[in-house]
């Protein structure tokens, strides 16, 4: 007869069947339930195994597993099947008797096995990581050399390695030297502008008086020197890391470098910039000077207060109304928009700013009469007339500024018939452009936003 064995202590893989041929003499020592000659299934546990007694196998026509050995018992006439796992089972059984664990292919593991395997895995990962680190360090050493070696090699080649501070000192000395030509001075300022974009470098100018040298360059009789000196100052004023105190302006990068801004005001930079804008100068020079002025005024209420006292709004008004200055007019409008929105933001968040800002700065913001000054200087009408500029970008900035000045200039806007006609004309133009955007599948296009701003203004002015 055949017996099917499954291991409890050391389970046999699922689906493996072991057939054992038992003689009558072997059955004599087994429990009586196996000696009843029953052809039905029976079970018996011994030495950690569960023995299932099955009916006699190898019936005629019965399929046997692939790879099994089949023989014919001449005494009984029955076919006997020997499975491949039988030899392995016997070997494992001998090992079990000697106290060894059965070598059975299984997916079942104890918790100790898993802990041991995990510990080995971590050790292997650490070793592998250590090997990777060493390989990476070796690669870096092959690609790069220590700075000491580089300095030594450069010294042999008469090449000197300089820090940013050393370079800026050299450039300032070059610019300030009476023996330098105009081209050399301009080249020095051009290179210096690159370095002062970094906040630390810009503040480094203060340590050796370099900022004041550049400010004095605004007094030069050479328009190019004025232009590039203003270019350096604008870069030094406006670059800083993102901080909560340094608010964003008109979607641009943060624009504040307080230490440099304060030093510039004390060094007379504001007055010199306004003088250049108020006098006859080439357009490129005024463009750079306006850039420096915008960077100096943003988020600096004391500078804004001094700007109003020095007649800055009148200077900008004359600049905008001059012929051929449309490009500068858009920049001026953008500056006014930034200053107005900054003032409004301060009014809305004054409680929060009180906790983080010094009382002196709060008092300075309160003393900046920007909106009354814009109304008195006629900026309501000037801004409205700039809406006739042909460029879409310029119109966008003017529309934003009109919206920001709405509370201050509402009555002036209503009394201006030209503004109403311009808004109606622009509405028809942007309705057609917005319709084309919708046809192209743009639900929220650029022209649709401009149309929304125009409709909002028309609604407010009814």
Written description of the protein model:
The structure is a single chain. The chain is mainly α. About 60% of the residues lie in helices and about 5% in strands. The protein starts with a strand and ends with a helix. The protein contains 23 helices and five strands. It has helices spanning about 25, 85-95, 110-145, 145-155, 165-175, 180-195, 200-205, 210-215, 225-240, 260-265, 270-280, 285-295, 300-310, 310-320, 325-350, 350-355, 360-365, 370-375, 380-385, 390-405, 405-415, 415-440, 445-460; strands at about 1-5, 40-45, 50-55, 70, 80.
% residues in beta strands: 5-15%
- Level of helix content? 55-70%
Distance between the termini: 106 Å
Low-confidence runs of at least 5 consecutive residues:
1-58, 240-254
Number of separate helices: 23
Element order, helices and strands?
EHEEEEHHHHHHHHHHHHHHHHHHHHHH
The structural class is mainly alpha
Shape: flat
Query: Strands of the biggest beta sheet: in what spatial order?
Result: 1-3-2
The radius of gyration over CA amounts to: 45 Å
User: On the 0-100 scale, what is the average pLDDT?
Assistant: 77
Q: How many beta-strand runs? A: 5
Largest sheet: 3 strands, antiparallel
Set down the secondary structure blueprint:
Blueprint: E1 2-7, H1 24-27, E2 42-46, E3 49-54, E4 69-72, E5 79-82, H2 85-97, H3 111-143, H4 147-156, H5 164-176, H6 182-195, H7 199-207, H8 210-216, H9 223-238, H10 258-266, H11 269-278, H12 283-297, H13 301-309, H14 312-321, H15 326-348, H16 350-356, H17 359-366, H18 370-376, H19 379-385, H20 392-404, H21 406-414, H22 417-439, H23 446-460
Antiparallel strand pairs: 1-3, 2-3, 4-5
Helix pairs in contact: 5-6, 6-9, 9-12, 11-12, 12-15, 14-15, 15-20, 20-23, 22-23
């Amino acid at each position: 007869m055949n017996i099917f064995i499954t291991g409890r202590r050391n389970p046999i893989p699922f689906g493996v069947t072991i057939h054992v041929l038992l003689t009558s003499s072997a059955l004599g020592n087994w429990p009586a339930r196996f000696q009843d000659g029953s052809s039905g299934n029976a079970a018996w546990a011994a030495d950690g195994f569960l023995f299932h007694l099955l009916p006699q196998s190898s019936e005629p026509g019965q399929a046997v597993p692939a790879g099994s050995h089949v023989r014919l018992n001449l005494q009984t006439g029955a076919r006997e099947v020997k499975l491949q796992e039988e030899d392995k089972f016997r070997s494992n059984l001998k090992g079990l008797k000697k106290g060894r664990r059965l070598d059975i292919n299984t997916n079942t593991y104890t918790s100790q096995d898993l802990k041991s395997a995990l510990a080995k895995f971590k050790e292997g990962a650490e070793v592998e990581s250590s090997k990777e680190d060493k390989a990476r360090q070796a690669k870096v050493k092959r690609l790069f050399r220590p700075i000491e070696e580089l300095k030594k090699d450069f010294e042999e080649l008469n090449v000197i390695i300089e820090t940013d501070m050393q370079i800026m000192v050299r450039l300032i000395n070059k610019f300030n030297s009476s023996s330098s030509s105009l081209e050399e001075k301009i080249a020095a300022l051009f290179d210096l502008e690159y370095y002062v974009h970094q906040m630390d470098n810009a503040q480094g100018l203060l340590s050796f008086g370099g900022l004041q040298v550049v400010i004095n360059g605004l007094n030069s009789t050479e328009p190019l020197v004025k232009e590039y000196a203003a270019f350096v100052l604008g870069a030094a004023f406006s670059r800083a890391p993102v901080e909560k105190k340094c608010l964003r302006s008109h979607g641009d990068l943060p624009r504040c470098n307080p230490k440099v801004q304060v030093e510039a005001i004390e060094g007379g930079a504001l007055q010199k910039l306004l003088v250049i804008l108020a006098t006859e100068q080439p357009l490129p020079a005024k463009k750079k000077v306006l850039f420096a002025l915008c960077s100096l005024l943003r988020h600096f209420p004391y500078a804004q207060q001094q700007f109003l006292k020095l007649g800055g709004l009148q200077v900008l008004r004359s600049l905008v109304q001059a012929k051929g200055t449309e490009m500068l007019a858009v920049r001026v409008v953008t500056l006014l928009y930034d200053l107005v929105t900054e003032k409004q933001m301060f009014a809305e968040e004054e409680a929060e700013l009180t906790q983080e800002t010094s009382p002196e700065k709060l008092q300075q913001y309160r003393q900046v009469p920007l909106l009354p000054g814009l109304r008195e200087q006629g900026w309501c009408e000037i801004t409205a007339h700039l809406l006739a500029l042909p460029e879409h970008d310029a119109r966008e900035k003017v529309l934003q500024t009109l919206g920001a000045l709405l509370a201050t200039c509402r009555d002036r806007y209503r009394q201006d018939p030209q503004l109403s006609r311009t808004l109606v004309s622009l509405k028809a133009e942007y309705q057609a452009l917005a319709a084309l955007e919708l046809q192209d599948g743009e639900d929220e296009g650029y022209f649709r936003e401009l149309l929304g701003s125009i409709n909002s203004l028309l609604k407010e002015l009814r």
